[in-house]
Hints:
Elements: H1 3-12, H2 18-44, H3 49-81, H4 96-123, H5 126-140, H6 148-194, H7 197-200, H8 203-213, H9 215-242, H10 250-269
Helix pairs in contact: 1-9, 1-10, 2-3, 2-10, 3-4, 3-6, 3-10, 4-6, 5-6, 6-8, 9-10
Amino acid sequence: MRVTEIVKNAIVFPSRNLETLSLYALLLLLSGAFTFEGIVTVIFGIVDLWNIVIGAIYIIIALIIGVITRRISIQCIKTGVEMEDYFPDFEWWGNWKMGISKIIITIFYFIVPALVIVFIALITNVFGNALDIFQAIVLHLPSILTEEATIMDAIAQASFPLFLSLAFTFSLGAMVFLIFSFFQAMSEARLANTGSLKTALNLYGAAKDIKRIGIGKLLLLSLIIFVIVTCIQFVLAFIFDQLLVLSILNILIVPYIALFTYRSLGLLYSDIV
């Protein structure tokens, strides 16, 4: 399919089953609420042990709901891969394996690039440069009141290498996360297509899929989705600024955009199935 056809198909797809869309939106809202309540309650558990227990229960509930919502997202990708024109009806007790597998994929594609960035930070000596600043402060601390200008100059000289190493690390880090976001997209599509977590986590296979689809086509679709979502958010931000009460519509708009993105991924992947 051409990129324009993918976008046209995907942008209307979530509206074909408003019941599932509404339930998906409600579950995302509940998942976020339980996660927030769980974290806050656990924090207060420092002074009250009972709060830790309640917070843990909230977080477990959020995880269960998260498995369901992620299963729905994989189903949405699958409809695109199989070129189906209908949105599947919502199932409470469907294939939990898919939801759990998607969570594992998300964790995997966060940990791997994070480790790469830590490795880059070690090479660029971010931690060493930060230690130099700390040592400069400690060294001049006894004379902080009498030699303030000297201390600031020493800190400034020690800060410049840290600034360069951080700038280099963040630049490469952004590229690493962007590259791995494409790998994650392919892995989710492979999971939807095969139902196999092992196949989904095969980085070499994901790389081959990107090559078969075409890096240019993948980048173009990503750019178009980014522009569409940015424009929608910009327009809505203006509307909500005028009528704050309408901001409640985000409860449906955010899930709609998510399903639109998942459907686009499935249709893109269908070219190589």
